[in-house]
Amino acid sequence: MTYDYNLLMNKAKEASKTSYSPFSKFAVGAAVLAKSGAVYTGCNVENSSFGLTICAERCAIFKAISEGEREILAVAIFSPNEDDCFPCGACRQVMYEFQKCGKGFDAEYILKSGTEIPLCDACGGKIKPDVVLYEEGLNQQTLEDAVFYISHADVLIIGGTSLAVYPAAGLIDYYRGNKLVLINKSTTPMDGRADLLIQAGLGEVFSQIR
Questions:
Q1: Which whole number is the average pLDDT over 148-163?
Q2: For a Cys-Cys bond, which of 34, 47, 85, 194 suits 69, CB 3.0-4.6 Å?
Q3: Of the residues 14, 46, 57, 116, which is catalytic?
Q4: What pLDDT score was predicted for residue 133?
């Protein structure tokens, strides 16, 4: 399916006009293109209880899902307050949940694409490596599996991380044992919880294991 992204952005711009943002004064509008071809719009809706605030992207996506859509092909985000408006981590996680093309490509296809950023011949989306890049949402099943295994582990060894980036850093909270090992060169917010704390490089420590 092809769609003029400028038209999608115009719909996001229009949606930003209905933003309810009395606290931040930062209006945002979003428009999402569903697999059916329908376009759904949303705006950010703030609340004095900050955690109840919803971003424009999630507003638009939830509207689409409530109407029976299950796959999102494109998202446009607009704010009159900023030239380039990017989604937060929570919105990226929701986007990931409903981006379900999943078609794979080999290196030959990528090399022969003839474009700077290869596009999927099924959905038209940008092709990316099969890894989670920085600021992208984690696969929900991967998170659920991690919670299960961590909560049932006898020993938990965490190495080479500042434990400052969520949601991955929060997985430590599911450990119920008393053999928590933290290995990192610098201090972390979780050092006080460790049963064994090793402040050294991960490679240095593991190279001494025989």
A1: 95
A2: 34
A3: 57
A4: 73
Backbone phi, psi, residue 69, to 5°: -75, 155
Q: What is the pLDDT of residues 58-113, one digit of tens each?
A: 999 999 999 999 989 889 999 999 888 889 888 988 988 887 667 788 888 888 88
Cα gap 12→45, rounded to integer Å: 15
Q: Please tell me what DSSP assigns to residue 118.
A: -
CA–CA distance, 19 with 195 (Å, rounded to integer): 48
DSSP-derived pairing of the beta strands 180-183 and 196-198: parallel
SS3 of residue 183 by DSSP: strand
CA dist., res. 160 & res. 172, Å (int) = 14
Q: 179-193 burial, b if ≥16 CB within 10 A, otherwise e?
A: ebebbbeeebebeee
**Catalytic site includes residue 144:** no
Q: Evaluate the omega torsion of the peptide bond into residue 129 and state whether it is cis, within 30 degrees of 0.
A: no
Query: What does the pLDDT read at residue 176?
Result: 94
Distance CA 20, CA 113 (A): 43
Question: Residue 40 corresponds to which tokens in the numbers above?
Answer: 């759904």
Query: CA-to-CA distance for 16 and 98, rounded, in angstroms?
Result: 23
Q: What are the residues whose beta carbons fall under 8 Å from the beta carbon of 93, sequence distance 6 or more? A: 137, 138, 140, 167
Residue type, 164: A
